[in-house]
Design brief:
- By secondary structure, the protein is mostly beta strands.
- The chain has no helices and 11 strands.
- The protein has strands at residues 2-6, 9-12, 17-24, 32-38, 45-51, 57-59, 67-72, 77-82, 91-98, 112-113, 117-122.
- The strands form 2 sheets. Strands 2, 4, 5, 6, 9, 10 and 11 form a 7-stranded mixed beta sheet that branches. A 4-stranded antiparallel beta sheet has the order 1-3-8-7, with no helix packed on it.
Length: 123
């Protein structure tokens, strides 16, 4: 499975961005896809995750009500719609895929990663 993120950029606080994670290869083997973010000097933390088959979702508390994760099976793409962005959302955002059911919160439980896309929110 290959993952390619896009959609990052510079936005003012209160603005919106939509990230895309396009997958190719053995996409039928995907169990779940997660979005993670990593700010300089900090750990890589999960932001949201979605079950590829059922569409069930998870959000970390700090983004609930602002971010929405979704998937388009026909396009093999997962999206992260980010609204009401805050400066503390600034980070490199990564998408990652699991090929079997494991913990959605742990980076080590994901099998494939994209290269990341920078999101910068100015105050």
């Amino acid at each position: 499975v290959q993952l390619v993120e896009s959609g990052g950029g510079l936005v003012q606080a209160g603005g919106s961005l939509r990230l895309s994670c396009a997958s190719s290869g053995r996409t039928f083997s995907m169990y779940a896809v997660g979005w993670f973010r990593q700010a300089p000097g900090k750990d890589r933390d999960v932001v949201a995750a979605i079950s590829w088959s059922s569409g069930n979702t998870y959000y970390t508390n700090s983004v609930k009500g602002r971010f929405t994760i979704s998937r388009d099976k026909a396009k093999n793409t997962v999206y992260l719609q980010m609204n009401s962005l805050k400066p503390e959302d600034t980070a490199v955002y990564y998408c990652a895929a699991q090929t079997r059911g494991r913990n959605w919160l742990y980076p080590n439980d994901y099998d494939y990663w994209g290269q990341g896309t920078q999101v910068t929110v100015s105050s």
